[in-house]
């Protein structure tokens, strides 16, 4: 071996013709070196392979063992222990030690890279997606029991939507493989990319769970989105019958975007933590990585007629009708006046807003009052999943009231 | 290139930078000379009374003097708290009460109190009038006659298609005379109005 290494170093001084070894093997060796995505363990193997074969032209036994790696769609299971990237990712995310590296490697293989469901992350991602949406929705509904449905959908999207998950993948330092394959380092996210120039919004979403989805002009009400659509209020794909599913042998040429693949990866990590380390670890992971992200819910509102909504709210809750009163003002006859208007219901002030005109100030005050209503949060919020803890206190019902103002 | 000498209208002595650089003259004519010591002295103002130690309190305490700003929307008003909430009893302190809410002037001069004084025959008459002569009986005129809001007239009846067409043409004729500046200013105003609801 030592002699062989020496010969490799001396190759720079030797002329190309003086080198032993077949041209084909050298080509193979150099092209492997250039591929940055190939795992380093494999590179060392192939270096030895080239050097050994340069001495005795018979094919060594390791060559036969390594050969199937090139025809595998995703890295073999035993490659997970040799990947430095994978171990670094495991340590960086502070994942529980009960979660093995092999499962983390499987979470990095998208169904578009490996259609075999025993080796891709589809099942893990399904479990993780259900956990993520469940934990997020119970947190939102218990913390802010009066939120309107549109705001809940927007907040769900902001917490566990695909864009957020793709951002998290980048923040975790997960890199993407150019092309999936058996020789790729298992620490890279592997998926079949969409062909360049493909228009992703070309065809409308079809085959959804919503009835009459082919009629584009039909109005989609907010309440029907709870029943038919997914947790973000978007149309969801109908499940495909097992008999109609494409066979695993058939190579599906349709790729996925990097955003979709990243989202599937994060969901699969969540699912694998739940499977290997249990529910408390999954809950802790969710709180540390998802709930800790700052989301200002008061920015998600958009009112078209706040004054009308507020008067409807006061009529519904049997409060005195809201009256806008001027708290203070300055420069009424100047170019830049400022009015501070408060909205009062009887003696109590509901909201306060400042604006350059009386109408603007009143409108902003009504918006502030409506946000004060919607953003009510009870003290000592508990979520239903906290009852699964050991020795949890008796459950007290969460606050439920009429909530949203419907005009 | 023609150069013109600008003769200042003010007396010459009031513009010290035009004078030859003579230190004594310049020092006298300037209002003050900024120096480190003088600037520092001028900034040395007596702090607000709320920052000082009150005479009745001799222990360490926290000074809470926030800058004036809009109240946070996450502080739910007492009226919006459910009856079983613990914060309701905390805010019954008379210090938190705004006792002067009656003396504040209202934004609108006229009362927006609804009267509910129109009956079925009145509504029939509104519909008949608007159908018979839509040019005379516009929404505003009907509202004035029946002492209700134009919004209520719009809820009760609808203009005939001919009237809508005429009104559309009138609007187009008016808008065709707008120049780019007025058009842009109106669009901007509409965009600003939409931003009120988003609280921007």
Automatic annotation (TrEMBL), chain A:
Q: Tell me the keywords, alphabetical order.
A: Mitochondrion, Ribonucleoprotein, Ribosomal protein, RNA-binding
What GO biological process terms are annotated to this protein in UniProt? RNA processing
| Species assigned in the record | Aspergillus nanangensis
Biased composition (Polar residues) is annotated at 205-218, 242-258
Q: Name the domain of life this protein comes from.
A: Eukaryota
Q: Which Gene3D superfamilies match?
A: 3.30.160.20, Ribonuclease III domain
Please give the Pfam families that the UniProt record associates with this protein: DSRM_MRPL44 (PF22892)
Question: Which residues lie in coiled coils?
Answer: none
User: In what residue span(s) does the RNase III domain sit?
Assistant: 86-174
| Region named Disordered | 199-218, 231-258
Which compartment or compartments is the protein found in?
Mitochondrion
A GO molecular function term, named singly, is: structural constituent of ribosome
Q: What cellular component GO annotations does this protein have?
A: mitochondrion
Q: What is this protein called?
A: Large ribosomal subunit protein mL44
Assigned protein family:
Belongs to the ribonuclease III family. Mitochondrion-specific ribosomal protein mL44 subfamily.
Asked if the record carries the keyword Ribonucleoprotein, the reply is yes
From TrEMBL, chain B:
Identify the GO cellular component terms for this protein: mitochondrial large ribosomal subunit
Q: Where is this region: Disordered?
A: 179-200
Q: Which InterPro entries match?
A: Ribosomal_mL58
Q: Name one Pfam family in it.
A: MRP-L20
Top-level taxon in the UniProt lineage: Eukaryota
One of the entry's Gene Ontology molecular-function terms is:
structural constituent of ribosome
- Point to the regions of Basic and acidic residues compositional bias: 185-200
Question: What is the name of this protein?
Answer: 60S ribosomal protein L20
- What lineage, starting at the top, does this entry show? Eukaryota, Fungi, Dikarya, Ascomycota, Pezizomycotina
């Amino acid at each position: 071996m030592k002699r062989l290494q020496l010969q490799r170093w001396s190759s720079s001084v030797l002329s190309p013709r003086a080198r032993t070894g077949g041209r084909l093997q050298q080509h193979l060796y150099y092209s492997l070196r250039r591929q940055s995505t190939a795992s380093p363990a494999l590179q060392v193997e192939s270096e030895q392979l080239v050097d050994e074969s340069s001495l005795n032209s018979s094919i060594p036994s390791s060559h036969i063992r390594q050969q199937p790696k090139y025809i595998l769609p995703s890295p073999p299971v035993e490659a997970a222990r040799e990947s430095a990237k994978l171990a670094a990712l495991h340590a960086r995310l502070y994942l529980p030690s009960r979660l093995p590296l092999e499962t983390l490697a499987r979470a990095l293989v998208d169904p578009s890279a490996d259609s075999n469901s025993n080796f891709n992350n589809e099942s893990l991602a399904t479990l993780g997606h259900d956990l993520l949406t469940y934990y997020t929705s119970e947190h939102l509904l218990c913390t802010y029991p009066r939120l309107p449905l549109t705001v809940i959908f927007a907040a769900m999207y902001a917490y566990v939507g695909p864009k957020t998950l793709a951002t998290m993948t980048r923040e975790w330092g997960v890199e993407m493989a150019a092309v999936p394959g058996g020789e790729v380092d298992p620490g890279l996210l592997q998926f079949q990319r969409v062909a360049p120039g493909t228009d992703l919004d070309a065809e409308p979403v079809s085959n959804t769970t919503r009835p009459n989805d082919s009629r584009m002009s039909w109005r989609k009400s907010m309440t029907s989105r709870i029943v038919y659509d997914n947790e973000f209020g978007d149309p969801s794909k109908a499940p495909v019958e097992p008999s109609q599913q494409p066979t695993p042998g058939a190579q599906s040429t349709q790729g996925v975007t990097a955003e979709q693949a990243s989202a599937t990866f994060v969901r699969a990590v969540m699912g694998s933590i739940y499977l290997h380390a249990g529910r408390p670890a999954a809950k802790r992971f969710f709180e540390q990585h998802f709930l800790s992200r700052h989301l200002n819910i008061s920015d998600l509102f958009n009112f078209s007629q706040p004054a009308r909504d507020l008067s409807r709210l006061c009529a519904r809750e049997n409060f005195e009708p809201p009256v806008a009163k001027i708290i203070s003002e300055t420069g009424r006859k100047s170019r830049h006046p400022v009015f501070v208007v408060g909205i009062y219901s009887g003696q109590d002030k509901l909201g306060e807003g400042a604006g350059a005109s009386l109408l603007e100030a009143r409108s902003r005050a009504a918006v502030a009052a409506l946000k004060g209503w919607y953003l009510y949060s009870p003290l000592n919020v508990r979520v239903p999943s906290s009852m699964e803890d050991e020795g949890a206190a008796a459950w007290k019902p969460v606050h439920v009231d009429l909530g949203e103002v419907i005009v | 290139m023609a150069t013109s000498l600008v003769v200042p209208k003010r007396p010459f002595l009031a513009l010290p930078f035009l004078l030859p650089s003579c230190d004594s003259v310049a020092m006298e004519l300037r209002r003050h000379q900024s120096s480190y010591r003088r600037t520092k002295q001028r900034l040395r103002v007596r702090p607000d009374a709320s920052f000082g130690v009150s005479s009745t309190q001799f222990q360490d305490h926290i000074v809470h003097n926030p800058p004036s700003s809009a109240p946070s929307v996450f502080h739910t008003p007492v009226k919006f708290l459910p009856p079983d909430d613990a914060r309701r009893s905390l805010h019954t302190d008379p210090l938190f009460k705004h006792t002067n809410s009656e003396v504040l002037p209202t934004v609108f001069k006229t009362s927006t109190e609804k009267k509910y004084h129109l009956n079925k025959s009145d509504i029939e008459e509104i519909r008949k009038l608007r159908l018979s002569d839509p040019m005379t009986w516009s929404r505003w005129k009907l509202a004035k006659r029946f002492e209700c809001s134009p919004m209520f007239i719009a809820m009760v009846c609808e203009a005939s298609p001919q009237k809508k067409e005429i009104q559309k043409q009138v609007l187009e004729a008016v808008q065709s005379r707008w120049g780019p500046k007025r058009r842009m200013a109106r669009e901007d105003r509409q965009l600003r109005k939409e931003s009120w609801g988003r609280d921007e």
